[in-house]
Structure formats: C-alpha cells, structure tokens
Design goal:
alpha+beta; six-stranded mixed beta barrel; 10 strands; 64% helix; elongated
C-alpha cells in the first residue's frame, strides 16, 4: 500500500506540490509559534520574566491555529477532490472503501511527514528575527535568546498530521459512500446542494460566530472583545461549509444577466461548480478577514486607552520626569501658579493570575506595572471610574485596586487577595479593595505608597499631576528642566509611545497574511490547472482563445467579489463587537488604508493567477490540436 501511495503522489505531482507548499508554510508558522511559547516557558529567573512572551505566543497561536486548520483543510480537500474520478474508478474495478480510504490517508501522511519538517526547520530560525522587536517592546528581559530544541518541529507534525488526515477523510467521504457508477458520474458533475451534516455544521458555526461577536454585551472590556475578534473566523468557516448554497442563492438570478459567450460560460461554470468556487474563495476571504480584524482590534485598543486616559485625567499640566525626590517635588509645588502637585509612582512586580498553575512560572505569574497613588487617593486630578470598593482604602499596607479586566483575568474581586511578588523576591498577599474601569488608560493594578514600601520596593515618583491658576505656570515648570505637557499633549504622547509594540504586531500580522495569501494563490492555481481537460474540450467544440481568456477573467472577478462579500459579512459583526466592548456604541476605528489595500489584493490575486494558467492551457490545447 505504501508503494501505491508513493506512485499516486508522483502521478499527481502538481496537485501534491501545492499541498506540499501549504503544509510547509503551515509547519513554519506552527513551529515558530512553538518557539515563542517554549522560549517564554524556558526563560530563566524566579520572577517569571517569560510571562509576557507566553501571553503573546498564546494570543498569536489562537489566530494561527484557526487559520492553519482552515487553509490546510481547504487545500487538502481541493487536491483530493480533483482526483475523485480516480477514486471512483478504483471502486468500479473492485477496490473496497477501506482500501481507497487507506490509500488516500497514506498519501496525505506521506506528503505531510515530508512537508511539515521541511517548513518547520526554517521556521525555527526565521522566528529569531523577532528578537530585536521583542526587546524593544520590553516583552522579554535584556540578554534574551530564543530556545533551541526540536520540540516545536515535533509539535507542528503532531498538530498538522491529524488535521490533514481528517481533511482527506472528509474530502473522500462522499465518493466512497456512493455506489461506484454514481461516484464516476459525480466526479464530472458536482452534486447539487450539501448534506445534512454539513448544513447543520454550517449553521452551528454561524450561530457560534454571532454569539462570539456579541459577547461584549455580556462580558465588556478586553476579554469580551477578544472573543468578538474570533467570530470572523467562525463565520468564514460557516461560509466555507455552506458555500454551495450561498453560491446558488447569490448567482441564481444570473441566468438573465446580459453578456457575451465569455460571461455566459463563466457564470454557468460558477453555478455548476459551486464547490470548486467555494474552495477558491475561502482563502481569499481569510486574507481580508485576518488583516481587517487584526488592525481594527489594535486600533480599537489604542483608541480605548486614549479615551480612558483623556476621560480620567483632571490635571491642567502633567510632568513626566523619572527620579523626582522629595526636594524636587517641593520645588515643583512652590512654582508660582501651581495650586497642587500630585505625585504618582510606579514599580514593576509580578502578579499571580492563576492559582491552579503554580508550578509553571510563566503561566501563573504575569509581569505588571503597579501604579502608586498618594495618600487619600488622587480624586481631585484622577477619575478612575471605580465600579466597586473605595480607592481611599489603598492607604493601608498590602492593599491593591484592580481593573475590571484584571478582575476577570484573575477571578478576584473586592475582599479577596492577590499574591504579588515584589522586586526583592518577597511574595505577599494584597487585599483587593476596589475595582475600576479604566485599566487600559491607567493600568490594571494600583496601590498606595505604603504597600510597596512595606516590602522594600522603591516606587519613586515619575509622573506629577498639577493643577494651576495661571497661564504662566507651564513656562515656569519647564524652566526647572522638567518635561511638562498640558493634558491633551500628555495623552497624545502616551498614545504614540508604543511604536515598538505596534511594529511587533505588524510583523506577526504580515507573517499570517503572507501564509494566507500564498495559500489563496496556490488554491486558485490548483483549481484552474485541474480544468485543463475542460478547457481543451471547450477549444475543440469551437470556443476561441479570446473567449476562454475572457471567461477566466469573469470567473476570477466573480471569485474575488464573492471572497470580498463573504469577508465583509464575517468582519462586520466582529469589529462591531470589539468596538462595543472597548468603546461602547460608536463607529469602529477601521483602518481604511489597510481595508483598501487588502481589497485590491483579494480582487487582483484571482486575475493574476487564474488568467495566466488559462492562457498557458490554451497554448497547450492549441498545440495538441495542430499535432492531432
């Protein structure tokens, strides 16, 4: 059976080459994500410095694995669907279902076992290019190096092998369960509609996608918004399963569309081969969905942080000069025109966010910047929108106020205790005395000055909020050699301060888009290359070269528009949910430049892949007709 599998792979080298490329790229992505995760877990030190890297890898892995499953399943299904006639003929000459199923499985296993390590090993080295960005974004400590081990390659193989094998089983399922003669006929003409299992699965995914999109109505903040961001992928997956029905519904009225022979042929093909169109459309839709959702989430989080900071500040001027001592604060408070000076400090510590994973440092502890408030709070110059408890209780040692997102993340509320590991290595519980709703703007954890002082932590003032009575106060403060801004200037500077984080996010997004984009182009090439016999038949029955190229152009345009429509329909609930969870009822901050660029990609990729393949096939068909 292994010899048959190898022979089948060699005989269909073109289709398997496309599958090989996608599996190799998927292996690189999964292995690279595994390197990030393993590096976070292996980062040395008691304080669990790798926690931020583990969180980053976990977030990236969620999106990556969903994309990998969708793209690999679509590619494997397409490669095997083009061979349905071969499998049907094997059944017709006496091969049993089990024999054909085993042959298909062995072929996919053979390609996967070669392709995934081929891509995963370079992925181990490619991901190291993120190290400078990780250091600039302060996601890892100085001197950090990526972990080196074969474990991510093994994980990639272990993950992708069952995905590819299951996709192969599902792709050959319909051919194997029908009688051999019927299977031969259906290998030429697609069956109408979809089965009940596929229909129910599509409906279930659509419902889950809509529930996830509107989860911020129940769970506001970053956690609800993160769930909403995943809804686009669930809705695209639902569209992939229900594709033939959607195509029949959308194109059902195209019988009456005016046009020449090329348009008529193209629309007839899209109606008659809706499954083939769906397979080509899904990767294209993912390109637009991934790019739009990820950039919208980033922009929405930044906008929410800016709004919270602007809404919470009540100061006239903000001084940002780390290392201010008592004498400097006194001198600042004595400046003419300054009515009050409220000093805020900060200290880096570790917070235990999961009590059940105490043995795994990087997963159970999270690095946090604890903001210290003066005695009595800072109610005159700060409005943190406290939803429970009282900030005045922070004057007591071993107390902490947390944001609503931190409360959901840790499962802690007012009256419960959080375990904090201070820079000295001392671990001490702190009672939660308040929960506020502006964590993106002011941080997830706030304490009074007494709490870090009780454990030997230096929380020197780095920000001073001033209220003033005259216009000359700003110049007077600047004359002391301090950095001073008005409220609007401080908010703008703080909002623009995370360029390194945005660069890291952009690099990881580009890796995803490159994978999905190559997979989409590969799918279109495979789909079109598998139609050479169809194109040859059209040439022999009188279709001209210009008509066939025109037909290919119309089909490519239909595929691009269909992908755009599916992606937009999937993205709209997602971005609305993300925006509602973080900004309330408002228009989502969609990056129109990114949306426009991805729209061009979705429309141009089919034209740049389908039309050249058809031109090449026409040349071959013409040469064969001359020789024949």
């Amino acid at each position: 059976m292994w010899s048959l599998a190898r022979s089948g792979t060699r005989a269909h080298l073109a289709a398997m080459t496309g599958t090989f490329v996608v599996l190799a790229l998927a292996g690189a992505l999964v292995a690279g994500t595994g390197v990030l995760f393993e590096s976070g877990l292996r980062t040395s030190g008691d304080a669990g410095e790798g926690g931020l890297l583990v969180a980053l890898a976990s977030s990236f892995a969620g999106t990556t694995l969903v994309l990998v499953v969708l793209v690999v399943a679509a590619t494997v299904s397409l490669a095997l669907r083009q061979r349905q006639r071969d499998f049907a003929l094997l059944r017709a000459v006496g091969a049993t279902r089990a024999q054909v199923r085993r042959l298909v499985g062995l072929e996919v296993v053979l390609v996967t076992l070669v392709a995934v390590p081929t891509g995963a090993i370079p992925g181990l080295f490619a991901v190291r290019r993120l190290t400078p960005l990780l250091l600039e974004a302060q996601m890892v400590p100085a001197g950090f190096t990526m972990a080196r081990s074969p474990l991510p390659v093994l994980v990639a193989v272990a993950f992708l092998l069952p995905v590819a094998h299951l996709a192969a089983r599902l792709a050959s399922r319909e051919t194997l369960r029908t009688p051999p003669t019927t299977a031969v006929r259906q290998s030429v003409v697609e069956p109408a509609g979809i089965g009940p299992v596929r229909r129910i699965s599509a409906l279930a995914l659509a419902v889950c996608g809509l529930v996830a999109a509107f989860s911020p109505l129940v769970v506001p903040g970053t956690i609800g918004s993160a769930a909403a961001a995943t809804s686009a992928f669930l809705l695209v997956a639902a569209a992939a399963l229900a594709g033939p029905l959607l195509v029949a519904w959308v194109l059902g009225a195209t019988h009456r569309v005016p046009g020449g022979p090329a348009t008529t042929l193209a629309l007839a093909n899209t109606r008659g081969f809706s499954r083939r169109l769906t397979t080509a459309v899904v990767p294209l839709a993912l390109v637009l969905a991934v790019g739009t959702v990820q950039t919208t989430v980033d922009d929405t989080v930044a906008e929410a942080a800016t709004r919270q900071l602007a809404d919470g500040l009540r100061a006239d001027l903000v001084v940002t000069s780390p290392g201010l001592d008592a004498a400097g604060l006194a001198e600042l408070a004595a400046v003419p025109g300054v009515e009050s000076a409220t000093a805020l400090g900060s200290v880096t510590a570790r917070v235990r966010v999961d009590d059940e994973l105490g043995g795994i440092e990087a997963l159970s502890w999270e690095a946090a910047q604890l903001r210290t408030l003066p005695a009595g709070g800072a109610g005159r110059v700060l409005d943190l929108d406290v939803v429970e408890g009282d900030l005045a209780a922070l004057d007591r040692p071993d107390t902490v106020a947390i944001s609503r997102d931190a409360s959901l993340d840790t499962g802690k509320g007012v009256g419960e205790t959080l375990l904090i590991r201070w820079p000295s290595g001392v671990e001490a519980p702190a009672e939660v005395v308040a929960v506020h709703d502006r964590g993106l703007g002011f941080g997830g954890y706030l304490t009074g000055r007494a709490t870090p002082a009780a454990h030997g932590a230096d929380a020197a003032p780095d920000t001073v909020l001033l209220t003033t009575s005259g216009p000359g106060a700003e110049q007077a403060v600047a004359g002391l050699g301090l950095t001073v801004r008005d409220e609007a200037g401080y908010v703008a500077a703080a909002s623009a301060g995370d360029d390194a984080g945005r660069a890291l996010s952009t690099a990881m997004l580009l890796a995803l888009l490159l994978f999905v984009g190559i997979a989409a182009a590969n799918t279109l090439v495979l789909t079109t290359a598998g139609r050479r016999s169809e194109l040859t038949l059209l040439r022999r029955t009188g279709a001209t070269n210009a008509q066939l190229v025109g037909m290919a152009g119309v089909e490519a345009l239909v595929a691009g528009v269909a992908a755009w429509v599916i992606a937009v329909a999937a993205v709209v609930p997602s971005v609305l949910g993300v925006s509602f969870g973080l900004l309330g009822p408002s228009v989502p901050p969609i990056d129109l430049v990114t949306l426009g660029g991805l729209t061009l990609v979705v429309l141009l990729v089919p034209l740049l892949t389908v039309v050249p393949v058809v031109v090449s096939a026409n040349r071959r068909a013409g040469a064969e007709m001359i020789r024949g």
